[in-house]
Design brief:
It holds the Pfam family Ribosomal_L10. Helix content is 60%, strand content 15%. By secondary structure, it is an alpha+beta fold. The chain has a five-stranded antiparallel β-sheet with strand order 2-3-1-4-5, with helices on both faces. Helix 1 packs across helix 3 and helix 4 packs across helix 5. The model has no long low-confidence stretch (mean pLDDT 86).
Length: 175
Amino acid sequence: MSLNIEEKKVVVAEVSAKLKDAQAALLAEYRGLTVAQMTELRKRARQSEVFLRVVKNTLARRAVEGSSFECLKESFSGPLALAISKDPVAAAKVLAEFAKDNEALRITAGAMSGKLMSVEQVQALAKLPSREQLLAMLLGTMQAPVAKFVRTLNEVPGKFVRTLAAVRDAKQAAA
């Protein structure tokens, strides 16, 4: 089914708007995936707040014009799905995890901060912890010295109470 000019403009505007707020954009060839598999991929993408769209290459080229993802222009060939996310790791994780289970999905390129990324770089990005995990690790690291200090402060009265209990037990044993 062919799109008329107005529908094409809407698609280009939608993708361009998503690219403005994005940190990363990835391309994946989906040739060979069934409808059910594509539906599952879209579901996973939605859950991870990743915008996933199959866009005609000519429309995608127009959408990336003037954005920091213009370096992807030459990579648009064949049937491609465009994954865009604010969290650079999220899109890479979704596509890489799905590609593990479905060999038909093949990541072809990616871009982040105006630089083209190879497939190996996208795979490395997918192995990084997510933003939430990194924040949790940072919080744990920041909390560790405070927790240790509180345990140390708690040890003084605890030792005093144990000493009193030992003296009490010694007096009871002597009596």
